[in-house]
Amino acid sequence: MNARKLPPKKNLSSMKMLGRQLGTARRAAGLTQSALGEMVRLDEETIASIEQGRRSLKSDLAHLLDEILQTKGLLSTGVANLPDIDQFPLWAEEYMEQERVAIALSFYDNAVIPGLLQTAAFARCVLLNRIPAYVEGELETVLRLRLDRQEILQRRCPPTLSFMLWEPVLHLRIGTEETYREQLRHLRNCSSLPNLSLQILPLDSPMHAGLDGPFTLLETPDHQHVAYTESQRGSQWVSSPDEVSILARRYAMLRTQAMTTQDSLRLLDRLLGER
Description:
Number of strands: 6
Shape: elongated
Number of helices: 11
Number of domains: 2
GO molecular function, one term: DNA binding
InterPro entries: Cro/C1-type_HTH, DUF5753, Lambda_DNA-bd_dom_sf
Largest sheet: 6 strands, mixed
Strand order of the largest sheet: 3-2-1-4-5-6
Helix content: 40-55%
Protein name: Transcriptional regulator
CATH topology of the largest domain: Endonuclease, Chain A
Organism: Streptomyces galbus
CATH architecture of the largest domain: 2-Layer Sandwich
């Protein structure tokens, strides 16, 4: 793709900085990544991933490495003071930075209700289904950060938000019946926000432009148009004007194939038994 320049990152990821410190200490001790891996019962690729900031350094491993490399608590202290956002891969970190300041966001999802519209109970149930499971303490951090993202809905100058959901998403009974109904009510309430529109793509629609999976369109404060796509094992920015244009056209087609906002609200009311 022909990269289109995004707003600059504010600083080097703390995970990357910590990884560089580990690499420096390892080399000073005269150890290869393979040799250090054997000492802590990890493979060479795992050590390399930590040093490159692609994998987080866990507290117990940091303490062990401090002893082996004689770094006097440098690594364990670094782990203890990692900013919450650095619990995420760099692509997710960059996305969250841009989401906070975006002036327009358009979401399409055919798998689950987007995080910005999830209740705390529903989000917890979604996160509990992750494979591999989050280790102790991680789930609460990820849950808090997911809910913190929702502050943009109440921002003084909120972005223009458009959500497009495939109807089966509304029928997924994740969690208890009350969790499910609370989520539907929350979705219904969010739909009344003046800056937010919600449309449902009906199950019996003969045309469907979103079969390739979920994506997000984002407009930055300086009016750059970029996109973000998700997959099972990773996500990516799309910044090529040609590629962004394709996704924008898909979203436009989805809007013509979906129910109107009024019909979408009536569907939510029927699911809630209110009409």
